[in-house]
Structure formats: structure tokens, C-alpha cells
Amino acid sequence: MAVRRVVPNVRSEAAQESREFYGLLGFEEVMNHGWVMTLASPSSPAAQVSFIAGDKTAPVVPDMSVEVDDVDAAYAAVRDSGAEIVHPLQDEEWGVRRFFVRDPNGRVVNVLGHR
Q1: For the CA atoms of the chain, what is the radius of gyration?
Q2: Which of 24, 54, 59, 99 has the most C-beta neighbours closer than 10 Å?
Q3: What pLDDT, in 10s, does the model give residues 66-87?
């Protein structure tokens, strides 16, 4: 299994202000579903940050997102380790398959793969 990118998620009700502020640092909006907006560096597209008002289908806002090339294998490894699954593995309408897990520090990690 390979990690494709890691994205910090910031719980925020200030999407417009965040877009403007991080725009000063060179970030541009690459995704906006209304409840989640992702900004990325045009020169280094894997350098991203997301701002989330509230997750559409999950009970919590994750602290970070980790995109992997095989989310089913990641889910099996995490489940078999006994880690707490916070949100079950499922296909989302916006084109990702994902689950949330709590890490040893208490942080919630959104593990995903694009379909």
C-alpha cells in the first residue's frame, strides 16, 4: 500500500476568509463541496489543506486525511490492529471510498482512495 498524499483538515466556518488568506501564500481552490473546501499549491499539487464546516456523512470532522492507493487493504490492516473505527468503510457520492480511524494520539484520520 502506498500513501499518495496527506492533508491537514481544519474545522472552520470561515471558508471565504481562509481561501483569501491562504491565497496570499499561493494556494488555490481545487475542490469545494460547500461543507468542505480544499486548497492546493499550483506548483506542488500534493501540498494541500482542507477546511471543513462539518462532515456530510460522518459523525466528526477528521483531523487529517491520508489518501492511499488501496483503501480496502488499509481498512483491513487498521481493523485487524484493533484500532477504533470512527466511521465505517463506505463509498461516498463525491467519488471516494473512505473510513475514519482514531490514531494513538486521539486524532481522527480520514483514510481514503479515489474510485
Answers
A1: 14
A2: 99
A3: 999 999 999 999 999 999 999 9
Contact by Cβ (8 Å): 97, 51: no
Which of 112, 92, 91 minimizes the C-alpha distance to 100? 112
Q: Where are the domains of the chain?
A: 3-114
71 exposed, middle or buried (CB, 10 Å; 0-12, 13-18, 19+)?
A: buried
pTM of the shown model: 0.90
Strands 36-41, 28-32: pairing is antiparallel
Where does 3-114 sit in CATH, by number?
Answer: 3.10.180.10
Is residue 17 packed enough to be buried (19+ CB in 10 Å), middle (13-18) or exposed (0-12)? exposed
**Cα–chain-centroid distance for residue 68?**
11
